[in-house]
Amino acid sequence: MSVLRLELDVGNSSLKWRYMRGGQRIDGGRINGSSDEVLALLKSGPAMVYIASVGSAARERDLVDVLSRSGVPFTFARSQRQCAGVTNSYADVGKMGVDRWLVMIAAYAECSASCAVIDAGTALTVDIVGNGGVHLGGYIIAGVGLSAKALADHTGRVRFAGDEKVSLAPGIDTESCVHHGKWLAQLGAVNAALEQAELAVGGKLNVYITGGDAPALLTLAGARAEQWRYRDELVLDGLAAVMAAS
């Protein structure tokens, strides 16, 4: 029988986890990522832990400390020059966030064709993979939370709270102007990035979307997003593929 493994996607604001046995997902969810929460996950007895992390150095140190004390073997995934048919475009592959690398791996493994991968989290990233699995470049943009925070931190009179409604309608007060505006900026960036992606590959391409703000963007995109493929655990899917290829 296949051993139980724990897969962790460590982000800037939360930690996504799942148990896998062979190719079967046993359970999963999202936690803040405290030491006690990680210890609770280890109580189920995984034989190994696979990790994709873009969290802070302090967050990683705390995680390594917990895992080291538990005695469970663990491995961090790193961005690579090439894996699972995808070739990295960065001159220094170590400078690519591993989350971006893994979502490209997962998307290309599924479609085996040119694709654009949107990851709507703390940062909004869009990466383009051409036919043959070559990474053609991408974009990193502040996510909705960071966009609003930038206005709060760097303007003297733009003050807002409250209204978190996901909408593109013109605002009628400062709060709605800011909150609707941040979604307008996100969707506008995604649409522009996809236009550039189609130019880069010379035609239509498969579109994948993941991340905590993905459902909201799918709703806002409407009919345009009907063919987009939403994958809630795309980072973890890529993590599993990379570790299987190691």
From TrEMBL:
**Residues annotated to bind K(+):** D119
GO molecular function terms listed in the Swiss-Prot or TrEMBL record: kinase activity
- Under Enzyme Commission nomenclature, its number is 2.7.1.33
Q: Binding of substrate: at which residues?
A: Y90, G97, V98, D99, R100, T174
Q: Which cofactor does it need?
A: NH4(+); K(+)
Q: Which domain of life is it from?
A: Bacteria
Q: Which residues bind ATP?
A: D9, V10, G11, N12, S13, S14, L15, K16, T122
Q: State its role.
A: Catalyzes the phosphorylation of pantothenate (Pan), the first step in CoA biosynthesis.
The protein's name is Type III pantothenate kinase
Q: Which organism is it from?
A: Zhongshania borealis
